[in-house]
Structures are given as structure tokens and as C-alpha cells.
Specification:
Elements lengths: L11 E7 L3 H9 L1 H7 L6 E7 L6 E7 L5 E12 L3 E10 L2 E2 L3 E10 L2 E9 L4 H22 L1
Antiparallel strand pairs: 1-8, 2-3, 3-4, 4-5, 5-6, 5-7, 7-8
Helix pairs in contact: 1-2
Length: about 150
């Protein structure tokens, strides 16, 4: 898989402050058990999560929607700078097909007693898919804030 991602639609950027230090927030993204509690927001379940946390390592999550549809989310870690940044590829596969590969960058910026999380998700080929991911990332961050508060 290539690290180069076409950018025909502006990248999605989501920012949120989390009431925890960067290491704790970083850990929520890199510990499979913690990912199972927040990925997809509060309406989904994540029965399976595996993470090989190293550059070139892979992750894979099974996410079940409220309607019972299972999707696989998988990708490769391109950059890991603990506890400051993760960059990884992102592919979703379900009964509707396989998404094009996109790229996600997550920065964890210390802001006093909080962490500003900055998610930049790029490479979308469809505005509707981009909008759905914006809602998805917002939902994920809502749950992370609740878990770490």
C-alpha cells in the first residue's frame, strides 16, 4: 500500500480538548481494549480489535452498527511518535464493498492539564463519505472525553 493518498476533496479536520494528559489520550488510541470502548461512538460495538503498534504494523477492528451491520476497519501505521502523533492508513470493508484507502493523522498536543486532539483525515473521493467520517470522529471523541473525564 502506498502512503500517497489522492486529495481531490479538502481534508477533514476535527479538533477537541480532552481532560487528560497526552500519554493517557495516546493510550486510548493504541490499546485494543480501550479502542473497543470508543471506536464508532456510543451507538456501535467493537467486538474485535487488534493492534501491532509499530511503524509498518497493522491494525484491524470489527465494528457493528446499531443495525447489526459488521464492518472491518484496517490499516497500517505509517508514523508513531508516542505520545505526540499517530499517522495511519484507513480502509473500511463491509457488505457494500471496500472503501478507497485514506490517511489519518492524529496529534496529541499538551494544553495545560488537557490534550488537544487534532484529527486530519484526507484522501476522500466523496463529500458524503467525508461528512459521515466527520460525524464519526466527533462521536469517537465524545466517548473518549467521557471515558477520560
Amino acid at each position: 500500500m502506498s502512503a500517497e493518498v489522492p486529495t481531490t476533496i479538502p481534508a477533514l479536520e476535527v479538533r477537541r480538548r480532552v481532560p487528560a494528559p497526552p500519554q493517557a489520550v495516546f493510550d486510548t488510541w493504541t490499546d485494543p481494549e480501550q479502542v473497543r470502548h470508543w471506536l464508532g461512538g456510543s451507538a456501535t460495538s467493537v467486538p474485535q480489535a487488534s493492534i501491532d503498534l509499530r511503524e509498518g504494523g497493522h491494525y484491524e477492528y470489527t465494528v457493528t452498527s446499531p443495525e447489526g451491520v459488521n464492518s472491518k476497519i484496517r490499516g497500517t501505521f505509517l508514523t508513531i511518535r508516542e505520545p505526540d502523533q499517530l499517522i495511519f492508513t484507513w480502509i473500511i470493508e463491509n457488505e457494500a464493498g471496500r472503501s478507497p484507502e485514506t490517511k489519518v493523522s492524529v496529534e496529541f498536543r499538551k494544553m495545560g492539564n488537557e490534550t488537544e486532539v487534532v484529527i486530519v483525515h484526507q484522501g476522500f473521493l466523496d463529500l458524503g463519505v467525508r461528512a459521515a467520517h466527520e460525524g464519526g470522529w466527533d462521536g469517537c471523541l465524545d466517548v473518549i472525553i467521557t471515558l477520560l473525564n
